[in-house]
Amino acid sequence: MFRRALWWIRAKATRAVERLLLRVLAAGPVPKHVAFVMDGNRRYARSHHQPIQQGHSDGFMALRRVLEACLRLGVNCVSVYAFALDNFKRSPEEVRDLMNLAHEKLIELSKHGELLQEYGVRLNVLGKTSLLPEYVREAISHVESATRNNNRAILNICMSYSAQDEMTSAVDSAIRLSLEKSDPNRCEITEDDIDAQLYTSLVGSPPLDILIRTSGVKRLSDYLLWQCCENTQIHFSKAYWPDYGFWDLLPVILDYQRKIWSQGKL
Ligand code: FPP
Ligand code: MG
């Protein structure tokens, strides 16, 4: 009983310190768009002798924690890699469990009084969603319409996504639009035309400031490749995604602020 009370007090105190630090950080330059490659769920589960599904479930808890920290900080847009097109090659059981988890959590996120409503977040699911099962697509429509009028921040959940697919679809749309507007024998498209047709641009995401990948793997894995441009800062963390939290994010934000200040960009 005494130990439980002590644990509770410690958790409360840590949360209060985190909130205070977020308020201090929010007074400096804040990135507008932060993206996460949430990697390491299965290794986390194995290291805790738990089923893989528990790793993905704890991964969703980490997503809530990190999203809330970003929103408190004042980040306008958070993008997360939840399911790569390549992930369809995993075992049918794991794909089914991930789809069930996505369905359950999307419905949960659409509820009134949830995080997205509290912080005024519009949720978008980006990717080749036609490949997702119908019950997941229905949950996506439900949460997208439930949060459509939220305008303080954006959460992009990338599912059935690959950057190569995104770029191919953007080029295709840019060509189609150009042909509709001009001479069909002279189709010209620019970088800006392609940029405007990216999944992230179509939902109004600002340029990507920071990309973070967890679990010690140093690869981009076909995520937001067009968006990772001149000014995007890329960070690799050794933490498995379900363990990732405020104390991992803190040095990333401090580094961003130091770089902005040293460039005299304030
Ligand atoms: C990568 O770790 C993680 C995934 C493929 C799934 C990520 C999904 C969530 C965090 C939950 C998403 C929630 C919603 C609302 C869609 P891994 O499986 O590659 O693990 P490993 O690198 O240790 O093998
Ligand atoms: Mg992985």
From TrEMBL:
It holds the Pfam family Prenyltransf. Residues 1-16 form the signal peptide. The keyword Magnesium applies. The keyword Magnesium applies. GO terms for molecular function: ditrans,polycis-polyprenyl diphosphate synthase [(2E,6E)-farnesyl diphosphate specific] activity. Its EC number is 2.5.1.-. InterPro entries: UPP_synth-like, UPP_synth-like_CS, UPP_synth-like_sf. One of its GO terms (biological process) is polyprenol biosynthetic process. Keywords: Magnesium, Signal, Transferase. It comes from the Eukaryota. One of its GO terms (cellular component) is dehydrodolichyl diphosphate synthase complex. Belongs to the UPP synthase family. This is Alkyl transferase. The lineage of its organism: Eukaryota, Fungi, Dikarya, Basidiomycota, Agaricomycotina.
